[in-house]
Amino acid sequence: MKSIYLDHAATSPVHQKVVEDMMPVYKDVFGNPSSVHQFGRKARRILDEGRRRIATGLGANEKEIVFTSGGTEADNLAIIGTARANEKKGKHIITTSIEHHATLHAVEYLESQGFEVTYLPVDENGLVKVADVKEALREDTILVSIMMVNNEIGSVQPISGIAELLQDHQAYFHSDIVQAYGLVNIDVSTLGVDLMAVSGHKINGPKGIGFLYVREGTVLESLQYGGEQERKRRAGTENIPGVKGLQTAVEIIESERMNYKETYLHYKQLFLKTLKEEEVVFEVNGLGEETVESIVNISFPGLNVETLLTNFDLSGIAASSGSACTAGSVEPSHVLTAMYGTGHPKTTNSIRFSFGLANNEEDIIEAARRVSQIIKRLT
């Protein structure tokens, strides 16, 4: 029985071209990019080229790219670093109730340090309203943090509208674009966001590498102490093979973006179509036209996450949920709770399926049929 991977929103397989481009760096480029000798200069060239290439794709300046260990570190640097550096202007932060835990736990930490956080609600489609952001804004607001695409249901937030709202306000605007990067065309010159977090392993790149876009002029305090790498914003010897792999992954997604969008949307529609043909009872969480192509979150009435994921895994299907399964109990998804309310059945019976490089059309049909058989057996 072939295993089928439908959890690309959690992590994605590394593209073969990425592996091929990284291997020579691992073998031949071991110098420290901060060293002035030829070995260091060789590493520095790879670092500088990667930074320039990534910046160009965003319409950014290379000085605005800070390499990190991934999306979580980038979110933490953006949120905590900005808050610390600007607390004399105010200590109020706005975010949403459906953010990734890299953001939520960062703002929770700031709350423990005396900052005040407003958590915006979302509607039943997982969307925040620009009007709610406007209403929550205060003179002492220094940071607004709202993700571009939700990692559980794929809802695409009105980032441009929020950025326009903040144009004449002192608050910096941070967005976790981890799930959007690669499928959404992003140009920082028009988007209006000040800080954006990206992770390499979500775009068929290596783990352990990511970056934070920091708009020129944004006041940010480093969270690490040591060297003066990354223009004093992130101490530590840079991950040169990782940077090379990330650069290649970025080049691939930029050239294949439209193809990926069409392919993953086809997979999503085919998956849902097959479930319907198999006469399975289910409901999609979120509006299809308001979600990213690669993610679909499905509620299976009368069932629970723990049972579903266990049976899917036994049948070779890899999927996931926002619910945390611990010691025989299920902690409801914080995203679905924000959408539907505490105690709603969908918070503990919904599964996220996410499509990507590891899939083909035959896999999608087969996976949907296996899921259908399991659902019928359990109900």
Automatic annotation (TrEMBL):
Top-level division of the source organism's lineage: Bacteria
InterPro entries, A to Z: Aminotrans_V_dom (IPR000192), Aminotrans_V_PyrdxlP_BS (IPR020578), Cysteine_dSase (IPR016454), PyrdxlP-dep_Trfase (IPR015424), PyrdxlP-dep_Trfase_major (IPR015421), PyrdxlP-dep_Trfase_small (IPR015422)
Keyword Transferase belongs to the record: yes
SUPFAM superfamilies recorded: PLP-dependent transferases
EC numbers on record: 2.8.1.7
One term of GO molecular function: cysteine desulfurase activity
Domain Aminotransferase class V residues, every copy: 4-364
Keywords, comma-separated and alphabetical: Iron, Iron-sulfur, Metal-binding, Pyridoxal phosphate, Transferase
Cofactor: pyridoxal 5'-phosphate
Keyword presence, 4Fe-4S: no
Catalysed transformations (reactions): (sulfur carrier)-H + L-cysteine = (sulfur carrier)-SH + L-alanine
Family statement drawn from the similarity comment of this UniProt entry: Belongs to the class-V pyridoxal-phosphate-dependent aminotransferase family. NifS/IscS subfamily.
Protein name per Swiss-Prot or TrEMBL: cysteine desulfurase
